[in-house]
Amino acid sequence: MARRTPRAHYDAIIVGAGFGGLHMLHRLRGLGLTVRLFDAADQVGGTWFWNRYPGARCDFESHDYSYEFDDQLQQDWTWSERYPAQPEILRYLNHVADRFDLRTDIQLRTKVTSAQYADDTESWTVGTEGDDHTETASAQFLIMATGALSLPRLPDFPGIDRFAGRWYHTANWPHESVDFTGKKVAVIGTGSSGVQVIPRIAQQSEYLYVLQRTAGFIVPAHNRPLSLDEDDAIKSDYQAYRDRARESYLGVHFPTEDVSALEATPDERTAAYEARWQAGGSAILATYPDLPTDVRANDTLADFVRSKIAELVVDDDTAKLLTPQGFPIGSKRLVVDTEYYPTFNRDTVELIDVRADPIEEITETGIRTSNTEYNVDAIVFATGFDALTGPLLNIDIRGTNGRTLTDKWSAGPTTYLGLAIAGFPNLFSIAGPGSPSVLSNVVRSTEQHVEWIAELLQHMREHGYRAIAATPDAEQRWVDDVNDVAAATVLTSANSWYLGANVPGKPRVFMPYAGGVPEYRRICDDIAADNYRGFVLS
Ligand code: N01
User: What is the DSSP string of 274-311?
Assistant: First the structure.
């Protein structure tokens, strides 16, 4: 029987101890607010606590994927590789928690299950579940730093319960190491997580089936150790590095040619794409300015990547199956790999087309598709997340007059700036739907949100305001803007998780803001400077 502990009141409650939540806690404490941060995990780290599958690594470079809010922190921390691996990012976030003495206000192993706004007291009451107790706590402000990709999705194939082997989800990987030596393994899913875990499992397992529904565009990371000279070069002028990132569409600076892809000659294009392919990483998507907006320009890069697959994969049929078709490059998240395509040249790895031959059920001994049965010892689900809205809708959130967020968002998420929701006063979402979030370097975007929210709360204190609510009109205009901006790009033309297309029954709405980090920041700053236009302060 769960124990109930007494209720406490804070100025602010934060949900989630990842990049956004830790920084928010530090910032609000600096303003003198009383704050409680809840997280279901037994360590800080957010997504980097849970996604600890072999090969887990960020696809932004280390210096970009780190905080800028404290100069001494960025000077003191030294990243060891070009792209940080999961254990190193987790160490970094633990270092941040210790360095800023955050742990005293963090309550781990505590899952927030409900949040209810009280119109009379203009405050939130949050319900939580711990290992052996439930609890309520209240606060004037509720800040959801729950992450965009934190609710894993397991497809509802029948039969999972009777599978006699072990199964895993990449986003909920065990803490002890998993040994696939001598085992027959199936991996379902070939997005970013699948592409990272597949080469690692292939090195260990006796035989690996890769069950692919959609081939994606995948480019090499060319990860490597970082030299101290490279580190010094950035640290000697970190401010300029950060300024460049802040002024870049993605919140990370990638060089772009100053002509359109269609103006360049075929030879020039090939040379430009080849140089970026050799350099590695998603910078290739920024080669020309019209790649995200013009399908004919986009095709030139898509064809280049397709030609690389044909070079890298020996078996023609496998290469053909790995070749993405039917959507522009970049309309689904570009995947950055290490040794993915060469993995299919091993004679112990077999690619299965589960679009042509769909998975019917999980059996006691493996996976049965329409035509075949695959007997395996272990199954790895790399099947992604209920992105952006899932983590918020997974909590029973009720705003003014008891209206649920589930009801409000029944046709898709509506927000003002991706930061606030009309009808849910004093609630903020960090990097939520309607903000650049997953379309950007999310660390830059969370820092911008944290700063904006902190400045707002300071403003409210200085002026004696107790509540802030986005107006329905401002919210509707923002929703229209988010849709219009996305419609001017190639982003809406794929069945992506950006659109909720990976979750059966989820409303098909393009969720993040595609106008880019600098434009988004400018809009947020203008709104703040204009006395928080579109909000009612009381
Ligand atoms: O998830 P995904 P992810 N039957 O949704 C397949 C970030 N991330 O965890 O494409 C068969 O991309 C699904 O097939 P399809 C990054 O933003 C970053 O890989 O829907 N297959 C797809 O292949 C990323 O985009 C990093 O047809 C099924 C796969 O499962 C985001 O997280 C690392 C299926 C899911 O791919 C999500 O990535 C990891 C079914 N019923 C993640 N259902 C880095 O920084 C789903 N699939 C490097």
Answer: HHHHHH-SGGGGGSSTTTTT-HHHHHHHHHHHHHHHHH
pLDDT (tens digit per residue) in 273-288? 999 999 999 999 999 9
CA of 190, closest atom in ligand 1? 23
133 band by pLDDT with thresholds 50, 70 and 90: confident
Which pLDDT value is given to residue 131? 86
310 and 254 in a single domain? The answer is yes
Cβ neighbours for 347, distance < 8 A, ≥ 6 positions apart = none
Domain count, the chain: 2
What Cα–Cα distance (Å) separates residue 535 from each residue in 22, 177, 424, 479, 538? 26, 49, 12, 15, 10
In which region does residue 496 sit, left (phi positive, over 0), alpha (psi from -120 to 50) or beta (all else)? beta
On whether residue 504 sits in a domain, the answer given is: no
Neighbours of 214 (CB within 10 A): 18
Mark whether 400 and 364 lie in a shared domain.
no
Distance 169 CA to ligand 1 centre (A): 11
Find the mean pLDDT for residues 414-442.
98
| Structural domain contains residue 326 | yes
Which of 4-8, 51-55, 247-251 is least confident?
4-8
Q: Look at residue 1 in the predicted model and tell me its pLDDT.
A: 45
The DSSP output letter for 478 is H
344 and 457 both lie in a single domain: no
Q: Is the pLDDT of residue 351 over 50?
A: yes
User: Tokens at residue 316, please?
Assistant: 């023609």
Crossing angle of helices 517-529/442-463, nearest 10°?
0
Q: Model confidence over 477-531: pLDDT tens digits?
A: 999 999 999 999 999 999 999 999 999 999 999 999 999 999 999 999 999 999 9
The answer to whether residues 117 and 99 touch, using CB atoms and an 8 Å cutoff, is: no
Residue nearest (by alpha carbon) to ligand 1 atom 37: 384
366 and 414 assigned to the same domain = no
pTM of the model: 0.97
Closest CA to 48 of 84, 83, 18: 18
CA dist., res. 46 & res. 89, Å (int)? 10
Q: Are residues 166 and 25 in the same domain?
A: no
Is a pLDDT exceeding 90 seen at residue 7? Answer: no
What number does the ligand 1 atom closest to the CA of 354 have? Answer: 11
Give the whole-angstrom CA distance, residue 285 versus residue 489: 13
Residue 509 near ligand 1, beta carbon < 6 Å? no
For ligand 1, the distance from its centroid to the CA atom of residue 194, given in whole angstroms, is 7
